[in-house]
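Hi again,

Forgot to attach this to my earlier email, sorry! This is the prediction with zinc ion bound. I've pasted everything inline since the attachment limit keeps bouncing my files.
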Amino acid sequence: MRAWAVGRPGPVDGGPLEWVERPVPEPGPGQVRVRVSTCGVCRTDLHLAEGDLLPRRPGVVPGHEVVGVVDRPGPGCSVLSEGDRIGIPWLARTCGTCRFCLAGAENLCTAPAFTGWDLDGGYAEFAVVDERFAYRLPDGVGDVEAAPLLCAGIIGYRALRRAELPPGGRLGIYGFGGSAHLTAQVALAEGATVHVMTRSADARRLALELGAASAQGADDPPPEPLDAAILFAPVGTLVPPALAALDRGGTLAVAGIHLSDIPVLDYQRHLFEERTLRSVTANTRVDGREFLDLAAAVGIRVSAVPYPLDRADRALADLAHDRVDGAAVLVVGGG
Ligand SMILES: [Zn+2]
Ligand SMILES: [Zn+2]
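Structure tokens for the complex follow:
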């Protein structure tokens, strides 16, 4: 099969990905093999290609927003069968026995494995997945649209829950890209008032079109105090203005896996009156199932930009240089 592998991590314009020929993988016990139809291009793939995220295995195939159809179940599979349309997400395996797994917080597992980092991902014609970590995908969401739901959507949803927005509350969203525009739609459908802060005029327009109450510059104050806020932009300098925008008792959740340095905080302005600052780390399978059900119920709108599989290098470069208007998605199979 054809696939992309992380050859020598480095700047995206130097071509860190290699276009390779690989044997079609065989599913092991409890795994299914998927004929890949689409695979989303996530910023984490870019971090991996560029070496910000150290490769855990040389020559790994990136991609953790994988949509496809099971073409071969491995020995002992009991959940999925041939012909099922499924999604393969970032969380590929947890240990099931550490204190976090046992407490229902498998996103904090001390020995997890991730798709497209530890295990080969979906920048390829085939991929295998542990059937317990795959998701069945809602009918009515196409293969291209479903891909970004599997990481951008699920992580954004966890960030929304971590922000503890009260029913009918006022939510601030800082940065408005692939993950944020999905999260905003869930919050709006649940009755939130949403204020968006972003530097991009196009993103501000999209936010208002989706139903946001206001849209302003990245560090402008929102028109009213916020009960909760989510920081999607990987920009630490936005933490102080986002905390200052919170009402008493409000929570700011930082959604990204990377954040640039946070400037010194002023206790009175940024934290006192029980404001809370918290991070978001991966997700549980419960988060994933809840979000995919909600996305289908809400009729979520996904703005996706398709690329053929053999242009994955181009898709990553476009993402690096902010040239993608929406979520980049590799189209692999004949659909
Ligand atoms: Zn564990
Ligand atoms: Zn991702």
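The first strand starts at residue 2 and ends at 6. The CA atoms of residues 75 and 260 lie 45 Å apart.

That should be everything now.

G.
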